[in-house]
Amino acid sequence: MALLEVKNVTKQYGHKKVMDSVTFNVEAGHIVGLIGPNGAGKSTTMRAITGLMSYTSGNIQFDGQPITFEQHTALDKVGNLIEYPAIYPNLTALDHLKLYAMDTPSPANFDDLMRRTQIDGENFGKRKAKKFSLGMKQRLGIAIALIRNPKMVILDEPMNGLDPQSVHDLRELIRSLADEGVAFLISSHLLDELQKLVDDVVIINDGKIIKTSPIAAVFEHDQVHYQLVTNDNILAMPILVDQGWQVEDENGQLLITGPTGPQDIITVLNQHNLTIEGLNTVQANLEQSLLELLSTNDTEGK
After folding, report:
1. 269 CB burial (10 A radius; 0-12, 13-18, 19+)
2. Rounded to the nearest 10 degrees, how much is the dihedral formed by the CA atoms of 84, 86, 87, 93?
3. Which backbone phi and psi does 167 adopt, to 5 degrees?
4. Measured distance CA(49)–CA(6) in Å, rounded
5. Which stretches make up the ABC transporter domain (predicted)?
6. Tens of pLDDT along 27-45?
7. Largest Cα–Cα distance in the chain?
8. pLDDT digits over 145-189, tens only?
9. Fewer C-beta within 10 Å: the chain N or C terminus?
């Protein structure tokens, strides 16, 4: 059984459905990206899962227990950072952790939590939050989400305000916790960063789930691409085509799509005495794949 189960959840305001039969699961130890354009229903879905709003029909269960606007028991083992954390300007980071841990029987170790989230260095017990940068407040919000030693953490735009090093460190923290069995549901508009982190994706548009899959499956329609330059591109093109690759000339570079790796390309061209002057892998791009998927979905819906 999945740790989180969202089944046919609909949220309706009048005739408008902001969630339309939303269904997906999150397994223990998995990092799931909830992605879609602005207004697609990401934040609404997260708010429903965390019991912050009611829903019209369907059901949500965490660890076998129901979650509704009235029933919150299951959320004792769910941490969350939805939008911006509630930060009190005259409290230190340590004060915040003590405050949010007051109703927690066995909170996380404060020193360890501060170290893992890298909040305020050695001054975390002294400096007031009103002096914190946006990135530091964001890291404090993540630490608060982890205070209950949760089985699952829900993060909405957790990378907001973080510098590149902090984003890298946050990825490492999330991955280490996932390796320990903690599940994550993360929404972020920084798709390139999300691509480096998540195991699975749930793609939502107009309140409907249009795809749920492992992250690798998002790119299944994209075979591996390579950019190639040889000493004779005109001669190289038909040779590669005969071997089963698709080849296009793009501003003096050969864009190659095919079923096998670069070593086979090198071997074939060497057999024909062609010199390779440059060979690069073109990485699949989550943002482009998402746009293509949304475009296909819009076309099919018309």
Report:
1. buried
2. -100
3. -65, -45
4. 8
5. 4-231
6. 999 999 998 888 888 999 9
7. 73
8. 999 999 999 999 888 878 888 888 888 999 999 999 999 999 988
9. C
